[in-house]
Design a protein that fits this description.
Two copies of one chain form a homodimer. Chain A is built from nine helices and no strands. The first copy, chain A, is mainly alpha-helical. At the A-B interface, helix 7 and helix 9 of A face helix 7 and helix 9 of B. Chain A binds a DNA duplex through loops.
Chain lengths: 191, 191
DNA sequence: ACCTGAACACCGTTCAAGT
DNA sequence: ACCTGAACACCGTTCAAGT
């Protein structure tokens, strides 16, 4: 079988969802494609590069909001981002790792920067964007870890459902960060 | 050589600082102690448990603030936490990972919860604590990654020093989150 | 352009046996 | 109580050679 880069990324995302990040090895992906693991290195310099391409693929599949004023849009982008991270097994950990490593996952940064720029937030913008992303990634990784632990049966549903790491909790936390951005914008106005 | 659990944790933290998390293998730690890797499994069920003990050790070494009203104290705790994470090579990644995995690193949660409780913040408390921690861990991991990339010479200092991921940026981001907590506390008062 | 086959230099973990 | 020695079942990556 002969593949192109795009096909390998698609298959890798599929394998991620099926087996999880820990079991997504170059050897396993090779088997999944009916190819030797070494063949993958014709398409990707190393595993990190492949993971970055997977993160970008997952992010590009989301339908990002474009309507609303800057505050509504920033909030909507964060909600869509969270949903997209939770839509794939270990999606939050994958995207957060790639972002931290600085090799990809830049789409949310661009979208949020554009939204906040319309808010004439000035020098606060980059810090505000990073603060939003730290919240979204941190919360999504937390939530996904606990959802998967519960699904594995290690923790029973009754014990975990009450600790608030759910959609309401996400909305509340997001509200805290956005309210904080508004306050700091008022304190040190743009320019 | 015969060791007790405490001595192994201390040596492991030392090895972390010297070689980094990626090179802290059970085999390498065994060598460092003059012991077979399998000997470590007499003291720790697995590597995750050892990493959790290391995270707790790093956190317990900090001198945590106890003075001031709830807001000042919450802010001071976050500043001390950040400093402590940056004080050890890969300290931020280690503690963030252990915390996400749910096997330790609970001290900051307890300290922040206690501080916010004095603020009579009610049902918002747990969400506020998690939002603060997502910010601190996310920011510290980011900063440490970039500091170490710069130290490795991959990026020159001039290019990185201007991107704002420094102490001022941390203070600004922390200001956003704390201001947000104040606002949301006012909106939905305790109880 | 894309893949095979074989190797290199590693991992975490288990377990019987030793002192 | 703590450690050794040997094994098991893996990793990511490289590289000459094939088509």
């Amino acid at each position: 079988m002969r593949y192109r880069r795009e096909e390998i990324v698609a298959k890798a995302v599929e394998a991620l969802d099926a087996y999880g990040l820990a079991d997504l090895t170059m050897r396993r992906l090779g088997t999944e494609l009916g190819v030797q693991p070494s063949a993958l290195y014709h398409h990707f310099a190393n595993k990190q590069t492949l993971l970055a391409a997977m993160a970008d693929e997952i992010l590009v599949r989301a339908s990002w909001p474009t309507e609303g004023d800057w505050m509504d849009r920033a909030g909507a982008i964060c909600l869509v981002l969270r949903d997209q991270l939770l839509a794939y097994r270990d999606g939050a950990e994958l995207v957060a790792t790639v972002h931290a490593f600085g090799l990809g996952a830049t789409q949310p940064v661009g979208l949020l920067s554009a939204a906040l720029d319309e808010g004439a937030i000035g020098a606060l913008g980059p810090t505000a964007v990073r603060t939003l992303l730290h919240f979204v990634y941190g919360h999504a990784v937390d939530e996904q870890t606990h959802l998967q632990a519960a699904a594995a049966g290690a923790i029973d549903d009754a014990a975990t459902s009450g600790d608030g790491r759910d959609g309401d909790d996400f909305a509340t936390g997001l509200g805290i960060v956005i309210a904080g951005i508004q306050v700091m914008r008022a304190v040190s106005p743009s320019r």
